[in-house]
Amino acid sequence: MNTNPSSRNRAADIFAVLARWLLGAAFLYLGLNKALHPVEFLKLMRQYDLGQGALLLTTVAALLPWFEIFCGLLLLAGVAVRGTALLLILMLVPFTALVLRRALAIQSALAIPFCAVKFDCGCGTGEVFICRKLLENLFLLGLSGWLLAGRGRRFCARYHLLPGRTKAGP
Amino acid sequence: MLAAGIVFAAGANLISPRGLVLTRNYFPTGSGPLSPMQSGAGAPRPGTNSANPVPAQLLAARIQEQGFQLISGRQATQLFHDPRCQQGIIVFIDARDESHYREGHIPGAYEFDPYYPEKYFTNAFPACQAAEQIVVYCNGGDCDDSESAAITLRDVGIASRKFYIYGDGIPDWTTNGLPVETGARNSGTLRRPEK
Predict the structure, then answer these.
(1) Using CB atoms, which residue from A42, A52, A71 is nearest to B26?
(2) In 10 A of CB B187, how many CB atoms?
(3) Are B42 and B142 within 8 A, CB to CB?
């Protein structure tokens, strides 16, 4: 079995490309689920009590799904991968915190075990058990972090769009 | 890239036929959760533990504050069987979305999704103008779309005293085995749910 550094790097690169496509497809799917049912998403966003301002709530509900689609498309195409990964982390961290806060409130109100808490968090996947949701988000965060570190650069449209830039570039 | 993403999102929302209007207040009853356990999705669904009904007193107070009246399933049934219902003096308004309306609504009820009111004004507004009593319902539980619909109609000139909010909504109606009409209004296709 060949385990030299270049073949290990190649395997890691291929795995990272698959991770990029998986992350891109996931955000495309989640974004589309919300964008096709914006009112449902808007109603679900209400549970997070983002403040009494209707404008903030409506703006988040109107733009976030399309923003996720935008990020998903960029990752699938391989354009601005690290910047997109950073944006995903910046979105995932506060939303995971909001979902966690909400789950703790439900747990406290119903006096049930934490992992028995099940609700529709508005994440685009319907009702889910909170522990599963948190694990999913951690997985997505992990993938985003990996891409942010510079992995997954094969098959990137970016190098066709900007031929002057090489894969070794920043 | 953040700016490009925001421009893309704003443009897509603007073009989308289902896009939200940023300046519209979609929750005239308040944009925060109605109850600590509110899911926002309306009717309690099997397998979830997040959707509890809004306490009755809280709901009654909120409805009264708007100048509407809260009615029970028994009162809604009485109004439905009142001969004036056939004459359009009493009308029913279904404040759920189109797919739920088509799945089954109170026979003869007008469709009025308060999130897309412009689609439904043509039919619902004249009916409400002519009516003396307007029963508005949605999914019961923590659903406040019936109130939103009543507020929207009130804001275009229908007197608030006409509105009767059927708080327990369609789940209560079907639980009591009362008939529902599927498809369009007055389609004639009636279904009587099992008790």
Answers:
(1) A42
(2) 12
(3) yes
Which of A32, A34, A37, A39 is the mutation pick for testing B, counting most B CBs within 10 A? A39
B36-47 as b/e, with b when 16 or more CB fall inside 10 Å?
ebbbbbbbbeee
Chain B: residue whose CA lies nearest to A63: B9
Domain with A67 in it: 9-155
Residue of B nearest to A39 (CA): B115
Do the chains contact at A118 and B48, CB–CB below 8 Å? yes
Residue A109 to residue B37, Cβ atoms within 8 A: yes
* Range from A24-33, A53-62, B24-33, B62-71 carrying the lowest mean pLDDT: B24-33
- Nearest in space to B51 (alpha carbons), one of B138, B171, B140, B173: B140
Taking only residues 77 to 116 of chain B, the set having a beta carbon closer than 8 angstroms to any beta carbon of chain A reads 97, 115-116
Residue A129 is assigned to a structural domain of this protein: yes
Query: What ipTM was estimated for this complex?
Result: 0.81
Per-chain mean pLDDT for chain B:
87
**What size, in residues, is chain B?**
195
User: How many domains is chain A partitioned into structurally?
Assistant: 1
Domain count, chain B: 1
Domain range enclosing B153: 54-185
Chain A and chain B share a number of CB contacts under 8 A equal to 127
Residue B106 located in a structural domain: yes
Q: Is-contact B180 B193, C-beta < 8 A?
A: yes
Look at residue B146 and tell me if it is in a domain: yes
Note whether B33 contacts A: Cβ–Cβ < 8 A.
yes
Q: What is the pLDDT of residue B102?
A: 96
Q: Residue B100 maps to which CATH number?
A: 3.40.250.10
Across B1-148, the runs of DSSP E, i.e. the strands, are: 69-71, 90-94, 110-111, 133-137
Is residue A139 predicted with pLDDT exceeding 90? yes
pLDDT score recorded for residue A165: 55
pLDDT tens column, B69-121 = 999 999 999 999 999 999 999 999 999 999 999 999 999 999 999 999 999 99
For residue A168, pLDDT over 70 is answered with no
List CB contacts (< 8 A) between B23 and chain A.
Answer: 55
Q: Is the pLDDT of residue A167 over 60?
A: no
